[in-house]
Every structure is written in C-alpha cells, then in structure tokens.
Write a structure and sequence with these properties.
The chain has five helices and six strands, in the order βααβββββααα. It is α/β, with parallel strands linked by helices and 153 residues long. The protein has a single domain, classed as Mannitol-specific EII, Chain A. Strands 1, 2, 3, 4, 5 and 6 form a six-stranded mixed sheet that branches. β2 and β3 form a beta hairpin. It is globular. It starts with 6 loop residues before the first strand and ends with a helix.
C-alpha cells in the first residue's frame, strides 16, 4: 500500500497551529471530517480513546494517531507538520512536530496494520523527517510523502 493511495493532496497540512496534544487531535478531527465526511466528534472521541491506551508517538518528533471507526469503508490519512512542536507524552520525551493521522474501517485489521507499518517505516528515516521539516508548503510535503513511496514500491 503506497501513501498516495491513502493520502490525498488536500489532506496535507503545512504549519498546523496546535498548543497541546488534545488541541492537535481536535484540529485533526476537524480536517478528517472535511476530507472524509465523517462526524468530527466521532473521530475526536475515537482518537482520544486510542490515546488512552498509550501515546501514539513513535519518537524523533513523530506521532501516528490512529483509530478504527465503524462508519467508514476506506482508509484515510492526513499528514500535518506543526508550526511549533508540542508535548505529546512521547517515550523519548521529544516534542512532536510531524503527525500522520490514520483512520481505518473497524473491520480492516490487516489493511490498518499494513498502513501503520508503511507510515512508520517512512517516518523513521532521518532524511525523510529532515526533508519534511524543511519543505516549503503543502505540495512539497505531499510530493515528498508520495514520491518516496512510488520509488520504494
């Protein structure tokens, strides 16, 4: 599964302003509602519930909040680069500034896990993180996220 299959160009946010983890999840739920026609509150509640199980940060300033929802039939991704890093309760105590939200159908266990693995592998690469942090605008971010995946496929 490539990222261009689950990340639309209009689902990339450059310099998102968030002051806390909860505020970030609220903002992402709002964007998810716009790109997927999902209910914003339902998305937000699902994200909060998943975070209660454990923080979805993966280290090095990256978080991959995710949830499975009953009312969707496809996987949705949203990428955000934050204007300022925020505390995200990361295991490495590093603030988070790169966030990839993943929403999947409740029944899509394998698809959800494959998408999480793909995103995690990509964002664990130091050169990718550096490029994303230095990118100039949403189109550059989208291209970096999807081009690298096309070459690796």
């Amino acid at each position: 599964m490539s990222l261009d299959g689950l990340l639309a160009a209009d689902a990339v946010i450059c310099d998102l302003k968030a002051t806390s983890k909860k505020h970030l999840l609220q903002e992402l739920a709002g964007y998810a509602a716009e790109v997927s026609a999902l209910d914003e509150r339902t998305v937000f509640d699902a994200l909060l519930e998943r975070e209660r199980l454990g923080a979805t940060s993966v280290g090095n300033g990256v978080a991959i909040p995710h949830a499975r929802l009953p009312d969707i039939d496809t996987v949705y991704g949203i990428f955000a680069r934050l204007a300022q890093p925020i505390d995200y309760d990361a295991a490495d105590d590093e603030p988070v500034d790169l966030v990839f939200l993943l929403l999947a159908p409740e029944s899509a266990n394998n698809q959800h896990l494959r998408a999480l693995a793909r995103i995690s592998r990509l964002l664990k690469r130091p050169e990718i993180r550096a490029n994303l942090r230095g990118a100039d605008g949403t189109q550059a971010l989208y291209s970096m996220l999807t081009e690298d995946q096309r070459r690796a496929a």
